[in-house]
Amino acid sequence: MAPSAAAAISSILLLALLHPAAATAARHRHRLGASLLAAAPNVSQPPTTFFEVDRPIRPPRGSSAGPCSTLLLSGTFGATYGRPPVTAAYAPPACLAASRAGGGGALALAVLEWSADCRGRQFDRIFGVWLSGAELLRSCTAEPRPNGILWTVSRDVTRYAALLAEPGEVAVYLGNLVDKTYTGVYHANLTLHLYFHDTPPQPPAQQQADLIVPISRSLPLNDGQWFAIQNATDVQSKKLAIPSNTYRAVLEVFVSFHSDDEFWYTNPPNDYIQANNLSNVPGNGAFREVVARVDGEVVGAVWPFTVIYTGGVNPLLWRPITGIGSFNLPTYDIDITPFLGKLLDGEEHDFGFGVTNALDVWYIDANLHLWLDHNSEKTTGSLLSYDASGLDLNVNSEFSGLDGQFVTSAIRHVSATGWVKSSYGEVTTTFYQRFRYENSNVFSKNGTVQITNQTIDAKSGIFTKDATAVLLSEELHKIFPLYIYTGTTDKVGDEYSLDSLVKLGINEKKTSGGKLGFLYSSLHNAQTGRGTMRVKKNLVVSGLGKTHQVYKYVGTDGCYFRDVSSRNYTILFDRSDDSCSKGAYSRASTKLNDQPARRKLLVNKL
């Protein structure tokens, strides 16, 4: 997904035909929206419903059966690129105000729902939702069909309870282009659903932050409220002072990558680009990381999941099952409690973000979640230990002409320990991150074939203790596997075929022990997609896309399983189960038919 003008996209696609390596080194050049087909489907067909496979958000036991729902905003997004966000005044719903005043049960669950439709031709567009400057949702639109599409995104926003309780302003930015070619206009509703406890939860629910401070740009703007990181030296920041009675602080970071870095994990090194005299091919190698700093010191990092948007690699893969994280982009938490001793002085401090090896453009902002001691006016603290040794990055390159292999590996460790004294006593907190990265990019057949194989391994942990006991011990381990094959073949004049195979996933394990007891969860979320498309004069004239996804979640809070497969807008099968039955999980496999698909052409049905 690229926030650029349509003319620029057309020139990039043409370039892919002129330079063989360009068709593999920068996969955004194959972002030929399936809505741009030479032959359009029958507009009398009903709209297609798109969806991202995820665990359903359900209210906890003992909460109200039905939600208290409030429409926050209804908007139309036509020619909105480079224009101010759509805004609406926000007032806390009466049911929430009554709950906080003691006239009802405590808030159990808050869900933000985005529902939208679109008809015509359009590329995928990134968008964000903010409340009083704090981002609540980062998402990507689906690419429409002439007969129309529908989709819904739901996000658990319970952690923003303090923000939801105060009046403010909702802002939505969706930069869209509309002209004679790109006709799709997005119509969207944004709704807040609230559930409340009928009785006090047992065990007590985890306490949400008392204050949420946005680290983003302020309105008015002709853009989203995110920061735009444009290169490797660009650091965007905001100064703010935190309340003097803070005893815990967590940064929640929103990240998305676009334009030249939409497929950063496929980018070749600069020496390959220079040696082959290639132009307009994104470089800087295949490693990126987001670095968070406070007053110039590294406090944590984000090695982001490789979200593939709904027009990425081969748009026919994501119909109607979209890529993991594309509708609800993940956020990343960095606990900065150990650093509070430096921040509790009443002065403003600089919170900044940069991206290692970045090309234009990365959209980044953050919410600072703060827990306040209501029994004292001031807390105190001190940083006991801190280690943020530099990034260990290695790149091995071997190439001859347009063919070659590039192997990239990286390691980073960050850890900090500090104490904070409040009315709850003196509590010592340790936060750590350990990252490992492996990436291989292989170019063959004169640069017309590229294979990317990558693994991101991220571990983090939080430990808090007082003088007598461990209060919290939490560890999170995430592994992001990725495999992409793309090959350009059968080039005749201004026509060519693009074959693609994509495998991506999230494997996550989380354990937590403390006052709330022991909690555990395990997630295995895997997608495999295979497709082909025939392109003539930058239009997809025929093609095939097939996707299979298996989602398995097991935890102390329940289970969820789904096994679903699609082919060119049609669901082949869809099985789900939330009973925690092992038999349901054993049936699943993400293996697809390995027969080549490149010559299976479906005109008029895409």
UniProtKB/TrEMBL annotation:
Keywords: Signal. Residues 56-388 form the Peptide N-acetyl-beta-D-glucosaminyl asparaginase amidase A N-terminal domain. Residues 1-23 form the signal peptide. InterPro entries: PNGase_A (IPR021102), PNGaseA_N (IPR056948). It comes from the Eukaryota. PANTHER family: PEPTIDE-N4-(N-ACETYL-BETA-GLUCOSAMINYL)ASPARAGINE AMIDASE A PROTEIN (PTHR31104). This is Peptide N-acetyl-beta-D-glucosaminyl asparaginase amidase A N-terminal domain-containing protein. It comes from Urochloa decumbens. The lineage of its organism: Eukaryota, Viridiplantae, Streptophyta, Embryophyta, Tracheophyta.
